[in-house]
């Protein structure tokens, strides 16, 4: 699992290789960071809004950043620039709400940098992660992942993002928002032989611990299934799963417990530059 660290802790771990990543203020932004991708492409982030402010290409054979004290000025061909106040929004049904953004920090992995933000609305707290690969097959590529998004909700990127970038899921589907990916799963948890006493039978708690979703109990005896309706059983935390089944005498039966449920997974997205210059001021 990925861990969320404070911005201060991450800053201390970052290599201060200014040829790869620069934490000085960029242009007019006091809270920003600049990251190089490939040989001559750079991405400058507005950390306060949680989004990309600028993407540009360095002049051939020259540096992409020019220092003036503790402020860096981008130099080269601007490919994308967002000077607006647009930020992330949360859509639930027909309701759209603005999100409060808090920067959590940046860390370096083997082949990419990872930026993290907390997006909040009322009691809903969402974690947004953006990865910037150091090298990419095509310029310029960014990877996004969202965590703790409420079921059925959609995370809407700032408008300039969709104007200049193509957002696609890991399945290659073009999208205008980030959401969880529903996934159907069916698995056999355990298969036990238990004594069926007159009046009913109950599984021990050690068997119930292996179930974490609504389940179906299917009773079978040898090759023939019992002529009984399949009963729905649900496990509560620390509770014993049991059922009531009428029987005329004690017998041994094989009990297969399986679940079939829909759950949500964190879905990764990719942002690819469309190739045409975008300048957004409003």
Structure write-up:
- The chain is mainly beta and 282 residues long.
- It folds into two domains: 7-179, no CATH class; 183-264.
- Helices cover 6% and strands 52% of the residues.
- It contains three helices and 26 strands.
- The protein has helices at residues 7-13, 159-164, 205-208; strands at residues 21-22, 25-26, 32-37, 41-46, 51-57, 65-68, 71-74, 77-82, 89-92, 95-98, 100-108, 112-121, 124-133, 141-147, 153-156, 165-169, 174-175, 181-196, 201-202, 215-221, 224-225, 231-233, 242-243, 251-265, 268-273, 278-280.
- A seven-stranded antiparallel β-sheet has the order 11-12-13-14-25-16-17. It has a six-stranded mixed β-sheet with strand order 1-3-4-5-8-26.
- A hairpin with a 3-residue loop joins strand 3 and strand 4.
- It is globular.
- The two termini are 38 Å apart.
- Residues 1-12, 183-265 and 276-280 have low confidence and may be disordered.
In short:
This protein is mainly β and 282 residues long. It contains three helices and 26 strands.
User: Measured on Cα atoms, how large is the radius of gyration?
Assistant: 27 Å
Which H/E pattern describes the elements? HEEEEEEEEEEEEEEEHEEEEHEEEEEEE
- Give the uncertain stretches in residue-range form: 1-12, 183-265, 276-280
* Percent helix: under 10%
Number-wise, the strands total: 26
What's the number of domains?
A: 2
Estimated share of beta-strand residues: over 45%
Largest sheet: 7 strands, antiparallel
Strand arrangement, major sheet: 11-12-13-14-25-16-17
**Overall outline:** globular
Distance between the first and last residues' Cα? 38 Å
Number of helices: 3
Mean pLDDT, to the nearest integer, reads: 70
| Helix/strand/pairing category | mainly beta
